[in-house]
Design brief:
Blueprint lengths: L1 H16 L21 H36 L10 H33 L24 H4 L1 H40 L1
Helix pairs in contact: 1-2, 2-3
Amino acid sequence: ILERQRRILHNTRQAILFDQASLPFNPESFGFDTTRITASESHKLQKLYKKVALMAINRLWMDYLDEMETVREGIHLVAIGSKNPVDEFSRIAIETFDKLLENLENECMEDFREAMKHPEDIESLGHFGPSSTFTYLLEDSFESNNPILQMCKMFTTLISEPLFTVRGLLEKLKRRWGKKALRNAEN
């Protein structure tokens, strides 16, 4: 699911980046008198809006990935509530991504209004573009890099599997002996 969502947002971003998508930029909605805007000014405004839109996509995607990482870390708890963790993760991922898409245009508009106050210094808004955007959830957690925790997990697995096997055998023997005891009592 996350890969499909990444592709959707990547395609949107690429279309904006290479001017293949029409941006929902309307100078009148920002209070500009379109009769007084020259072609070069209009081009500059569109370029600024494009930059703001790309930065908003990056920021929203990073926030989305952060939220999905948090969900992933706690998703095992839904099994306690008799729900399928995979289904719940998928449901949450889809709902959250839909909210991201709904908020994208509003975020662009708000950021553009802020950028218009200082168009020459857009980085001062704190919306500067990262050198790269993380697009995948990584397995860089403390547990995966800690050899002591890995040994504990391995030890637990080594002990628990035979215990469950022995427990199953004992229950099977109980049932058989219980049936034999019932037959003997009937005779």
